[in-house]
Design brief:
By secondary structure, the chain is of the alpha/beta class. The strands form 5 sheets. A 10-stranded mixed sheet has the order 8-15-11-16-14-13-12-17-9-10. It has an 8-stranded mixed sheet with strand order 5-18-20-19-21-24-22-23, sandwiched between helices. Strand 22 (723-727), helix 20 and strand 23 (755-759) form a beta-alpha-beta unit. Helix 8 (196-232) packs antiparallel against helix 10 (279-307). The chain is globular and about 105 Å long.
Length: 839
């Protein structure tokens, strides 16, 4: 009676379960692993009586959340299921890279090569004295690893952990090779004149492969165990988000994408609250233990199986090796007439695999034409539209262009004004602006009768900053090239006036102790901390001497390269770039700022609604609608045109509108393209940003059944290959929201387009810290995101090339635009997503 290989059977069964979750996690759960549920009321037993109690996250296991929720309100069971893929991928890659390093070193060491024997002895001794855990912890604490996307993070982690820990696998390979070298057939191979490379390839390598295969699974298990240890120390793969927003979730770090390691990050604290939060400890630890056990059992089972002389499993593996062997294929090709069938079959399979891997498999349903989107992009970014700065003549013409395009497709247009200028007589005796009345057209010569609201966009064409060093040498810098003027005092100023401001700069953090009275603080902050129109300059108390006010301020925004529009304000505030930024960040400098007061905004801004109403629906009774939101204003460039990167969202929206109406397609629900005004500039604070009081319109639009919200963010320039998929917090219909996002991910994968999935708050390049909810966007867009059945943003979350040398038509990522457009078109025309098919 044959003895059963229980480790192989049990380990193989457990491994199949893991691989099923790896390949098809949606089979196990229909929830979104990244969705952060709000706090909610639940029925719980209190002193033997069911009571409706308001519960805060983390919430204990219940019918809706099988394994409870974590601190952020994400379903623990769902994150464990979806985290299987990322975690096992990391474990397998650690094992693969370790064997890649261990095989050559182990083989050469086992063959008696002195150098490799000594090197292997040194590595084994060193990593016995200095634990890998400590070394890897010190390496992964570097900021570089904290903002990597998941796939890149897995690659870096696996490479480094393999480099630090391959010596153990190399010792196992070396011992196996030593046993092989003592076999008699090796002496025979040497005697017949074979070279050592031939012996390695033909004799040693085939015999050491069984050891390598069993070692692979054991190394994967060791890799998972090391991942769990690092997680307890706060190290895990993927993007790390430092949560600063929302008081009930502030002051900790969390992962974005699902991965097991991040669930053990707070293990020590959770253990201290074991009775109250036991599920946060038990389930992640249990899943890690399950995976490590299955891989170890499988590795040991394979080792035992390979030791058998009559193993069917080994026989099948040898047959597979024979079929897949390149050497066998080469020999068959030499006798093609005899073996033409297997040769043709193998080449066909290889060609099909290569095509499947490298070519997009997705077949579009719709007709999104990227050439037409590029035509819109070229038109709207041209000098004709004066940068599409809100309130300008060019901005009005751009609005008319959009209206013409949309009406030609069957959309009806509604306009809502955003007023910038008020007659002084309107304001006399009023403490607030009067938003009623006829919108003015401010013609040249009429400016003295008007007052501009704070945050009115301006087209500033002439300005310089002159810096004088200690030796008296002067360096002149130009607006739109070396700096942007963010905020410009316009009170009692008329267009054409020449203004000169002189002063001495000082580093805000260091303060100023000199005798100068005209001071200009240089403030350095991240994008997340920049608020342009706060009262004062944001200078720390004590930075300015008593009784002295700053005449201007320079705002260094770390990592930010995009140019900005100029806006009316109470202070002169400048964002230096490049060389000017570096110069002002060191010491004190004499600075002269010269600029010409720009023209007033000639017109009011306007938010435009383009409605596609099905039969039986009216503006009074719309029912549930789909809103596609997109900013259409622009950032002015020195050439007179508009930022190409900033024009991408509206260009894509116009072609998407054509594609979803192509062929007289009809929809059961209204579709609203919502063209927001004064939204394109990332540095404009929420206080002055956006479409005025338009956020109140959200209540009217949602009164007859609610809405789903899709936000187009553009697709970026060359070098920006990743599509951002942002699931906002307004997910009233979690099931359909997750279905829509999953379909987006599926199409992008089939199109071979890399993407980054995030939740709630937009990340910025270089520092993935949560931004305060009110600082991320305007009240208008925030309202639409927060109250939708489904709220998803697609495209390029952070536009950092506007106005730079890279911001050109030739540098547009056309392929990314095309494939993102195809994905969105097909999702909409299928009517199965964004609740278009929900009654």
């Amino acid at each position: 009676m044959k003895k059963l290989n229980y480790p192989l059977m049990i380990g193989g069964l457990l491994f199949l379960i893991l691989m099923f979750a790896y390949v098809s996690p949606e089979t196990f759960t229909g929830k979104d692993p990244m969705f952060e549920e709000p706090h909610k009321n639940m029925e719980i037993m209190v002193e033997g009586e069911l009571k409706d109690v308001f519960t805060m996250h983390p919430i204990f296991p219940n019918q809706e959340n099988l394994m409870g929720t974590d601190d952020a309100g994400r379903d623990v069971y769902t994150r464990l299921v979806y985290g299987t893929r990322n975690t096992l991928k990391l474990g397998f890659m650690i094992a693969f890279f370790r064997l890649l390093l261990a095989l050559p070193m182990g083989i050469l060491s086992g063959m008696g090569k002195k150098f490799f024997q000594r090197l292997l002895l040194f590595l084994s001794t060193y990593f016995s004295a200095v634990p890998i855990l400590i070394l890897s912890y010190l390496i992964f604490r570097l900021n570089f690893f904290r903002s990597l996307q998941m796939d890149a993070s897995i690659l870096w982690f696996s490479g480094i952990l393999a480099l630090l820990g391959f010596s153990k696998a190399a010792v196992i390979i070396s011992d196996a090779v030593k046993r092989i070298m003592n076999e008699e057939f090796i002496e025979g191979q040497v005697a017949i004149g074979k070279t050592w490379p031939e012996i390695i390839r033909q004799n040693i390598f085939p015999h050491v492969m069984p050891v390598a295969i069993s070692t692979f699974f054991k190394e994967a298990a060791q890799g998972l165990f090391l991942i769990a240890q690092l997680a307890v120390l706060g190290i895990f793969v993927g993007t790390i988000r430092e949560v600063k927003a929302m008081a009930f979730r502030s002051g900790y770090e969390m992962s974005l994408e699902p991965e097991w390691g991040s669930m053990l990050m707070n293990l020590t604290k959770d253990m201290q609250r074991m009775e109250a939060q036991w599920w946060l400890v038990v389930f992640p630890v249990a899943v890690f233990s399950f995976a490590v056990l299955s891989l170890n059992l499988l590795g040991e089972g394979l080792r035992l199986e390979f030791m058998k002389r009559n193993s069917r499993f080994v026989s099948y593996m040898r047959k597979a090796y024979y079929v897949l062997s390149p050497k066998v294929l080469f020999l068959e090709m030499k006798q093609f007439k005899k073996y033409w069938k297997p040769v043709v079959i193998k080449f066909t399979v290889v060609a099909a695999a290569l095509l499947l891997f490298f070519l997009p498999r997705y077949q579009p349903l719709g007709d999104f034409q990227v050439e037409k989107a590029m035509a819109h992009l070229e038109e709207l970014s041209s000098e004709k539209y004066e940068g599409r700065v809100s309130g300008s003549e060019g901005h009005r013409l751009a609005g008319e262009y959009i209206k013409d395009q949309m009406t030609s497709l069957g959309f009806s247009i509604e306009e809502l004004p955003l007023r910038y200028a008020y007659k002084k007589q309107e304001l006399l005796g009023n403490t607030e602006y009067n938003y009623e009345g006829e919108e003015p057209v401010v013609l040249p010569g009429m400016e003295k009768d008007y007052v501009l609201t704070e945050g009115t966009p301006l087209i500033l064409k002439e300005a310089t900053v002159t810096v004088t060093d200690e030796k008296g040498q002067k360096e002149v810098y130009q607006v739109h090239e070396d700096f942007s003027i963010l905020s410009l005092p316009m009170e009692d100023r008329l267009p054409g006036e020449k203004v000169t401001v002189e002063g001495t700069t000082f580093i805000e953090e260091e303060g100023y102790e000199g005798e100068e009275k005209s001071l200009m603080p240089v403030v350095t902050s991240g994008l997340d901390e920049t608020v342009l129109f706060s009262y004062g300059f944001g200078v720390e108390g004590g930075a300015l001497p008593d009784g002295i006010e700053a005449v201007a301020a320079f705002q260094n925004v770390t990592g930010h390269e995009a140019r900005s529009n100029t806006y009316s304000g109470y202070q002169l505030k400048i964002m230096p770039l490049g060389e000017l930024s570096e110069t002002l960040s060191k010491g004190n400098h004499k600075v002269t700022i010269e600029y010409t007061i720009p023209s007033y905004a000639k017109y009011s801004g306007r938010t435009m609604e383009a409605w596609l109403l099905p039969e039986g629906r009216s503006m009074e009774e719309q029912g549930e609608i789909l809103i596609i939101g997109v900013p259409y204003d622009g950032v002015y460039q020195k050439s007179g045109g508009s930022s190409v990167e900033g024009t991408l969202p509206v260009a894509m929206a116009l072609e998407l509108a054509r594609a979803i109406t192509d062929g007289d397609r009809s929809y059961e629900k209204p579709i609203l393209f919502l063209f927001f005004d004064k939204e394109i500039d990332p540095l404009l604070s929420a206080y002055t940003k956006g479409s005025g009081n338009y956020y109140m319109r959200r209540t009217e639009l949602s009164a007859n059944g609610g809405y789903s919200y899709l936000e187009l963010m553009g697709t970026g320039l060359k070098g920006n290959k990743v599509v951002d998929l942002v699931a906002y917090f307004g997910q009233l219909d979690k099931e359909n929201s997750f279905r829509s996002i999953l379909q987006m991910e599926k199409i992008l994968k089939e199109e071979k387009v890399p993407y980054l999935r995030t939740q709630n708050l937009l990340p910025t390049e270089g520092a993935l810290q949560s931004r305060g909810v009110l600082d991320t966007t305007s009240p208008s867009i925030l309202e639409f995101r927060a109250n939708a059945h489904i709220a998803i943003g697609v495209g390029n979350a952070y536009r950092n090339a506007m106005g730079t040398k890279k911001d050109t038509l030739k540098n547009v990522n056309v392929k990314k635009m095309e494939r993102t457009g195809i994905m969105l078109t097909d999702l909409l025309i299928s009517k199965e997503y964004f609740r278009l098919g929900v009654e």
